[in-house]
Amino acid sequence: MRRRTLPALAAALVASSAAAAAEFKSLIAPAISYDSPSVQGRKLAIILAGTPVEVIVGLDRWLKVRDVTGAINWVERRLLSDRRTVLVNVDRLVVRSEASTAATPNFEAERSVVLELLEGPRFGWIKVRHQDGDTGYARAVEVWGL
Q1: What whole-number distance in Å separates Cα of residue 130 and Cα of residue 140?
Q2: Which end of the chain has fewer CB within 10 Å, C or N?
Q3: What structural domains and CATH numbers belong to the chain?
Q4: pLDDT tens digits along 82-109
Q5: What is the DSSP letter of 139?
Q6: Closest residue by Cα to residue 130 from 85, 69, 83, 82
Q7: What distance in Å separates the CA atoms of residue 30 and residue 95, rounded to the nearest whole number?
Protein backbone atom coordinates (compact mmCIF):
# COMPACT_ATOMS: atom_id res chain seq x y z
CA MET A 1 0.00 0.00 0.00
CA ARG A 2 1.38 3.40 -1.04
CA ARG A 3 1.09 6.41 1.18
CA ARG A 4 0.36 9.82 -0.20
CA THR A 5 3.11 12.31 0.31
CA LEU A 6 2.40 15.60 2.06
CA PRO A 7 2.79 17.69 -1.15
CA ALA A 8 0.32 15.43 -2.99
CA LEU A 9 -2.18 15.72 -0.15
CA ALA A 10 -1.78 19.51 -0.06
CA ALA A 11 -2.34 19.70 -3.83
CA ALA A 12 -5.50 17.61 -3.50
CA LEU A 13 -6.83 19.90 -0.77
CA VAL A 14 -6.16 23.03 -2.84
CA ALA A 15 -7.89 21.48 -5.86
CA SER A 16 -10.95 20.51 -3.83
CA SER A 17 -11.28 23.94 -2.21
CA ALA A 18 -10.97 25.65 -5.60
CA ALA A 19 -13.71 23.41 -6.98
CA ALA A 20 -15.94 24.37 -4.05
CA ALA A 21 -15.43 28.13 -4.52
CA ALA A 22 -18.60 30.07 -5.25
CA GLU A 23 -19.16 31.29 -8.79
CA PHE A 24 -20.91 34.63 -9.15
CA LYS A 25 -22.34 36.24 -12.27
CA SER A 26 -24.32 39.44 -12.84
CA LEU A 27 -27.52 40.02 -14.77
CA ILE A 28 -27.11 42.02 -17.98
CA ALA A 29 -30.85 42.78 -18.16
CA PRO A 30 -33.85 42.37 -15.88
CA ALA A 31 -34.65 38.67 -15.58
CA ILE A 32 -37.68 36.68 -14.59
CA SER A 33 -36.78 33.90 -12.16
CA TYR A 34 -38.63 30.59 -12.35
CA ASP A 35 -39.19 27.61 -10.07
CA SER A 36 -37.92 25.25 -12.79
CA PRO A 37 -35.61 25.49 -15.82
CA SER A 38 -38.39 26.37 -18.26
CA VAL A 39 -40.42 29.42 -19.31
CA GLN A 40 -43.44 27.21 -18.58
CA GLY A 41 -42.38 27.14 -14.93
CA ARG A 42 -43.95 29.34 -12.27
CA LYS A 43 -42.63 32.91 -12.39
CA LEU A 44 -41.23 33.84 -8.99
CA ALA A 45 -39.66 37.29 -9.22
CA ILE A 46 -37.96 39.85 -11.41
CA ILE A 47 -34.26 40.30 -10.72
CA LEU A 48 -32.92 43.73 -11.70
CA ALA A 49 -30.12 44.26 -14.21
CA GLY A 50 -26.67 44.36 -12.61
CA THR A 51 -27.68 42.22 -9.65
CA PRO A 52 -25.11 39.59 -8.65
CA VAL A 53 -26.24 35.99 -8.22
CA GLU A 54 -24.40 32.87 -7.09
CA VAL A 55 -24.47 30.06 -9.65
CA ILE A 56 -25.36 26.71 -8.11
CA VAL A 57 -25.73 24.51 -11.18
CA GLY A 58 -26.09 24.94 -14.91
CA LEU A 59 -28.15 23.20 -17.53
CA ASP A 60 -28.14 23.86 -21.25
CA ARG A 61 -29.95 27.22 -21.38
CA TRP A 62 -30.60 27.69 -17.66
CA LEU A 63 -28.72 28.40 -14.44
CA LYS A 64 -29.92 27.65 -10.95
CA VAL A 65 -28.91 30.66 -8.85
CA ARG A 66 -29.05 31.97 -5.30
CA ASP A 67 -29.74 35.64 -4.64
CA VAL A 68 -28.80 37.84 -1.69
CA THR A 69 -31.91 36.72 0.23
CA GLY A 70 -30.92 33.07 -0.11
CA ALA A 71 -33.75 32.30 -2.55
CA ILE A 72 -32.85 29.66 -5.14
CA ASN A 73 -34.39 30.09 -8.59
CA TRP A 74 -33.75 29.39 -12.26
CA VAL A 75 -32.82 32.11 -14.78
CA GLU A 76 -31.96 31.99 -18.45
CA ARG A 77 -28.21 31.67 -18.99
CA ARG A 78 -28.24 34.27 -21.80
CA LEU A 79 -29.16 36.98 -19.27
CA LEU A 80 -26.02 36.51 -17.16
CA SER A 81 -22.56 37.94 -17.64
CA ASP A 82 -19.14 37.21 -16.20
CA ARG A 83 -18.89 40.94 -15.40
CA ARG A 84 -18.76 41.07 -11.63
CA THR A 85 -20.88 43.23 -9.40
CA VAL A 86 -21.54 43.28 -5.67
CA LEU A 87 -24.54 44.37 -3.66
CA VAL A 88 -24.20 46.63 -0.62
CA ASN A 89 -25.50 44.70 2.41
CA VAL A 90 -25.09 47.34 5.13
CA ASP A 91 -27.20 50.44 5.69
CA ARG A 92 -24.38 52.79 4.67
CA LEU A 93 -21.21 51.70 2.90
CA VAL A 94 -18.29 54.13 2.97
CA VAL A 95 -16.10 53.75 -0.12
CA ARG A 96 -12.63 55.12 0.52
CA SER A 97 -9.70 56.43 -1.53
CA GLU A 98 -7.42 53.64 -0.25
CA ALA A 99 -7.89 50.23 1.36
CA SER A 100 -7.85 51.58 4.91
CA THR A 101 -10.43 52.76 7.42
CA ALA A 102 -8.23 55.85 7.90
CA ALA A 103 -8.41 56.80 4.20
CA THR A 104 -10.53 59.67 2.92
CA PRO A 105 -14.10 58.71 1.97
CA ASN A 106 -14.76 58.99 -1.80
CA PHE A 107 -18.50 58.31 -1.67
CA GLU A 108 -21.18 56.42 0.23
CA ALA A 109 -23.67 53.83 -0.99
CA GLU A 110 -26.87 52.67 0.67
CA ARG A 111 -28.12 49.11 1.19
CA SER A 112 -28.96 47.23 -2.06
CA VAL A 113 -26.93 49.52 -4.33
CA VAL A 114 -25.10 47.56 -7.03
CA LEU A 115 -21.41 48.36 -7.50
CA GLU A 116 -19.08 47.04 -10.20
CA LEU A 117 -16.27 44.90 -8.78
CA LEU A 118 -12.95 46.15 -10.19
CA GLU A 119 -10.56 44.16 -7.97
CA GLY A 120 -11.33 41.12 -5.85
CA PRO A 121 -10.75 40.78 -2.13
CA ARG A 122 -7.28 41.63 -0.89
CA PHE A 123 -6.62 41.96 2.82
CA GLY A 124 -10.36 42.39 3.42
CA TRP A 125 -10.89 45.17 0.85
CA ILE A 126 -12.27 45.31 -2.70
CA LYS A 127 -12.07 48.01 -5.34
CA VAL A 128 -15.46 49.07 -6.71
CA ARG A 129 -17.04 51.56 -9.12
CA HIS A 130 -20.42 53.22 -8.75
CA GLN A 131 -22.58 53.60 -11.87
CA ASP A 132 -21.81 57.34 -11.89
CA GLY A 133 -18.08 56.56 -12.30
CA ASP A 134 -16.81 57.12 -8.75
CA THR A 135 -14.33 54.46 -7.63
CA GLY A 136 -12.72 53.45 -4.37
CA TYR A 137 -12.20 50.72 -1.80
CA ALA A 138 -14.85 49.06 0.33
CA ARG A 139 -14.65 46.49 3.10
CA ALA A 140 -15.42 43.07 1.59
CA VAL A 141 -17.61 42.05 4.54
CA GLU A 142 -20.03 44.90 3.76
CA VAL A 143 -21.07 43.61 0.34
CA TRP A 144 -22.64 40.44 -1.06
CA GLY A 145 -21.49 38.69 -4.20
CA LEU A 146 -17.90 37.63 -3.56
Answers
A1: 15
A2: N
A3: 21-81 (2.30.30.40), 85-144 (2.30.30.40)
A4: 899 999 999 999 999 999 999 999 999 9
A5: E
A6: 85
A7: 26
